[in-house]
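quick q for whoever's on today - can somebody do inverse folding on this one?? i tried earlier but teh output was garbage lol. tokens:
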């Protein structure tokens, strides 16, 4: 504010210039926190992988079980025909 009685006062700019770039976030993570979260995500993703050998073994066992179920169905139908 300029004092009209004092010739030495100057008008101050009331508009402040923002700093260059994007403003900082209040809850920004540090580099260490970002790295920790990245490593945790990578570890969680690696736990969901199934080795190819295990997948092949489980698939083979499933196919054998389905074949056995088919055989048992045929046997059951034959027994039901004998009863009924």
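ok took a stab at it. sequence:
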């Amino acid at each position: 504010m300029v004092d009209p009685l004092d010739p030495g006062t100057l008008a101050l700019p009331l508009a402040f210039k923002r700093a260059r770039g994007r403003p900082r976030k209040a809850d920004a993570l540090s580099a260490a926190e970002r790295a920790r979260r990245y490593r945790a995500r990578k570890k969680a993703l690696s736990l969901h992988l199934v080795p190819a050998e295990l997948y092949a073994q489980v698939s083979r066992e499933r196919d054998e079980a389905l074949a056995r179920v088919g055989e048992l169905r045929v046997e059951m139908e034959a027994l039901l025909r004998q009863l009924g």
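fwiw Residues 49 and 81 are 47 Å apart (CA to CA). also Residues 52-83 form the longest helix (32 residues). so keep that in mind when u check it
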